[in-house]
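Every protein is a chain of amino acids, and every chain bends into a shape of its own. Below is the pair of lines this work produces for a single protein:
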Amino acid sequence: MFRTLSARLTFFYTLLFAILSLAVFEMIDNNLEASLLQRIDTEFRGDGSECVDIYRESGLEGLRREIFLETQGEGDENVFIRVYSPAFEVVAASDLSRWDGLPEHTRQLETERRERFKTIYLPGNPHRVRIFFQELGDGHLIQFGKMLSDDEHLLKDFRRVFYLSFAVMLLAGILIGFYAAKNALSGIQRVRRGADQMSRGDLSQRIVLRGGSEEIRNLTHSFNRMQDRIQSLFGELQNVTNNVAHDLRSPVTRMRGLAETSLTGDQNIEEYRDMAGAVVEECDRLVGTINIMLEIAATDAGLRPLAHDPVDMKEMVLDVAELYSSVAQDKEITLTTRVPEAPLIVRGDRSCLQRALANLLDNAIKFTQQGGAVEVLSFVENGSLVVAIADNGPGIPAEDLPRIYDRFFRGDQSRSTPGNGLGLSLVQSIVHAHGGEISVSSVVNGGTQAKLSLPMHGMETANKF
């Protein structure tokens, strides 16, 4: 019965409503009963004061006449009055024939010669009796008593109306609460159906939710974003699978061709050694490609833990430029660096960031013709560190720019150079993992500029070129 969340919410809300309603009823009932008793007690005090005045003026005879008038007005069955002497004997009283079981007061009244109230039950009578004692003077006491039947009938009617109203409101609250809870949780049902569709492999449907609470809308939006991400990852996985099948087939085919050639002819030991060396070289290239693919996948998925240490990018730019200076000299390429004097501090993984810079600079030198120029700049722009690497090489055609980050993509001009088409994909994954951005602009025969930006940490006062 309470397996669903809507049923449990309805039960707990109904239980809370019932507890609060009963608590309010109990408070009102007690206050009403106290008010009725207070009203009677106020009447008793007024009658007691009046009897005190009559006793002082007219004595017992005048008091007997007042008792007769008082009981005749309200009825002997509803009120009684008794007067006690100093010896605690009844010296005047109303008709007590209808008050069977009324207790006779003895010497205990001697210790209670003061104004007081008391509520008692009479044997065989379902109604309570309110009693009041008033000292008259010279040792005499007067006792008033009143049946509380009218007040109890009023309380009984009040309780009956309350319980009837409470039952109706409780039933209405259950129905309305269940409908409201079920309607509020309908968004969760849609998310569940969407998850069922995902489990069956259908990633095309999105949850459309109109109205509903903010929490359900946020859950729906998060689920849709997760579904978009999963669909994107499946697409990337498909692309990677296709690229692997295409780009890894070539080295395997070459290794098989070398082995087949060696087995079909009459080769000497040197030729076998050359074949083994070529196979080892192809295996190393293949293993390197697979490792880079795994590194990109782990970085994109957030599975590779990255350090968050302070890194001075100014020193890193100078170190990477010095590392590739000999390669640039071999191609007679002019390599220049321009960095500010102040440190450029970011938080990240030093080895990953160094690898990203090395890939960008390696590409710039690789695709720049002999005698060209490569420039490395670092500066602060809009609160972010920017490293720009520009060359005056042949450039990248406009139709190839959108695909340069695709894995294994190589343009027509890059097919004659060594590489596997994974460099920029790895750089993009590293930069995104550090919360940064990368952009590449190029003009055919006008050079290429790769620019990456990273969030600054610490000093942000470096000069901009």
In short: The chain has a mean pLDDT of 79. DSSP finds ten helices and twelve strands in the chain. The radius of gyration is 50 Å. The chain has three domains: 5-154, 198-301, 309-455.
